[in-house]
Amino acid sequence: MTATATLPAVASRNRFFDALAPGGRRALFVLGIIAGCLLFAFPVLWLVLTSLRPGYAVYYVHRGTDFTLDNFHEVLSQEIVLHALWNSFAIATLATVLSLGVTVTSGYMLSRFRGPIPSLWFSAIYVFRCVPYVSWVLPLYFVTRALGIFDTYWGLLLPHVAVHICFFSWIMKGFFDGIDPSMEYAAMIDGCSRWGAFLRVALPAAIPGLTALAILCWLYTWNEFLFALILTAQKTPILTVVMAQFVHELGMEWHLMSATAVLSLGPALIVTIFGQKYVIRGLKI
Amino acid sequence: MAEVTLSNVRKTYPGGVTAVQDFNLHIADHEFVVLVGPSGCGKSTTLRMVAGLEDISGGTIAIGDRIVNGLQPKDRDIAMVFQNYALYQHMSVYDNLAFGLRNRRVKETAIDAAVRGAARVLSIEPLLDRRPRQLSGGQQQRVALGRCIVRNPKVFLFDEPLSNLDAQLRAQMRLELKELRQRVPTTSVFVTHDQVEAMTLGDRIVVMKEGLVQQVGSPLNLFRQPINRFVASFIGSPAMNFIDMAVAAEADKFHLSTDGLAIELPQSRFAGLGPQLGRSVTLGVRPQHLRLGSARNGEQVAFSGNLMVSEQLGDEQLLAVRIGRGDIRVSGVDPELALATGARVDLVVPIDSLHVFDGSSGAAIR
Fold first, then answer.
1. Which of A131, A208, B116, B161 has an alpha carbon within 20 to 30 A of B144's alpha carbon?
2. Confidence (pLDDT) at A6
């Protein structure tokens, strides 16, 4: 922010700020922040509004005053929505537990060990990360069909876990890189095996990072659409897909879709509010 | 009974880099041995091989009468202090101290007694409930020491434990370590790159360079009779002065000469110079042995040169005197003495405290 005579462009910009009254700069800053917040909050706000309007009024959300909770009632009376809510929750939770189990050990291996196996693993992850996410879907469809796990928990869980392992092993490696290995050496001298040193010393030290990853992982799976769309059908409905099915040949039921979307926001919001402290702390490591 | 014996120990990393070769050392029970050398000399690798944190590529390491080559660190009955303390961040100080004993399934009452005993010895009793993060560097290092002594191991290993402390605290911890040695006598191996730590703490010092042991001896022995130029330059502060000179013989004396400097040494004292005639040797003079004045008898050698810089330390002055083309350092000069830059300075040094090294190999010639 220091203006120097040799930089006319910077100087003139600062002159603009200097011309504002003492409180002006602050006011401008606050306005900017508010604008930014509105930009992000507006779609959510509109969604909530739409979900509270009767079906005939969704195209005039900004007009009229009739609000109703009927949409929620109607959506929750559909068995498929309840089923999908449960499925989404179960899949997100299971995927988080399974993928973190693998990610922690894989990240630890990448951080602490050298040799052919870690480098092969590292290259594999790297290659999979470079391939566009979308291009996996079709092959996965055939694979799950061939294995007979199409439209089951496993059929959706395993692809998710695979993606998470590729994406989060690197982050986990970063967490472990930040933890001094001499702590584990000390533990090994203090009577732990190599595995014990990992479990009792390195793992507890990585808990903040692990919590952050767990939250990101859960939210990611909960919000995921593409895999759910292609790899599931009637037997295992998933919330994001069910939501999209309110668009059909007879038109779009925006009010019902919005109500379902608001329902799906709930758990995600709870996780985010309770987890943001850990996410921030974890990502700071 | 915990002697440590290293026989022909070698460490070669995959890729062919040899970190340590042909390391032989016998450490007596309750002896405090310091491994010292510049970074990359293999001292830490040697220590880590004793600890079991590095595989041994060749040779054997024995602790007591047991060869430990294939043993896990936890089965070697050793304790180690790390440079960055390596305290378990998620545990209290008490749990840090108790960790090793709990792993060995010692009864809680015995653990409590051991932890409190160690805390008393190290004056860290008020810190037992704190987390390592809440402690200062010196306190953390005391906890790390405590973690070692509660276990009552056969051998203590120290990997540059004082390097992360500031100069003042380092001097204090050095004293505390010496005191601790008297209270808890245990066979110890201490690694450092600081020759002052090596000199003050060690019963014996092992000087290493590029994976090879250069010399093993008591601090005084290393200071007085360095085996080569490297050891001579590494031990002692300020470091020894080196002057490259040509050798000639005349009657019962050797003549050593270079630009602006010529000295005579009696052949009887430096018999080893005989085969060096016509070759180049390096004269080594410790700054502490040089005195202002001119030669009075045959037991001393005189130098003279011009004063380039003087440094006032309060209790002494350090001088840099230009002799020929090089500067030599003089320490222990009277702080009250006023010397003008550029003035002629006469120096004397006892013949007995001169060192001569082979010009190419650097080996001491006596």
1. A208
2. 47
